[in-house]
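Lecture notes, unit on protein representations.

Consider one protein chain, 189 amino acids long.
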Amino acid sequence: MRREQIIDATRDIADSEGFHAVTLDRVAEVCGISRTVIYQLFGNLSGLLLAMVDREFKKAASDFLKASERVPAKGQSRYAAGVAGVLEAVDASPATWRMLSMPSQGGPPELYERLDQARQMTEEHLAAGLEKEGFEASRLANPDKELAVRMLLAVSEQFVHLRLTDPQTYTTERLVAQAEWLFRAMFPR
């Protein structure tokens, strides 16, 4: 329980003020504990930041996998269904997704390693999804499958960014409708 409280406080400080504001003294103060407790649980500030990054990455990866397995509504593409699932996860844990989608400067090196892993995982899932749906290069509006997957990734990242920065303007419904339109334009049946 205490471990999660400390990680939550670390995430919240990094989210609201940036990684530069995360210090052991600050986290201890927010949690009402001594620095010694943090040292006992995490070793040092680097250990604490790594624990926080790993926890948030695992949560986001789990949410992404659930979203990628989401059953599309009637007439909806798997891509748009997945975007809807990811946007629900973004709304449920905005601090997590802000850290992973728009990291502030000064984050630990492991954060950027996890971001690279996340992009690679997402590309692989998008490519596998196209294979599963039976989309062949000859049927694409642009037959370069690698570029098509990278385009979907870039658009997906932008959807998350828009939702996080201006949720009133960029509603889930609006973004999912655009995802559906884009998918149908790129992959006509």
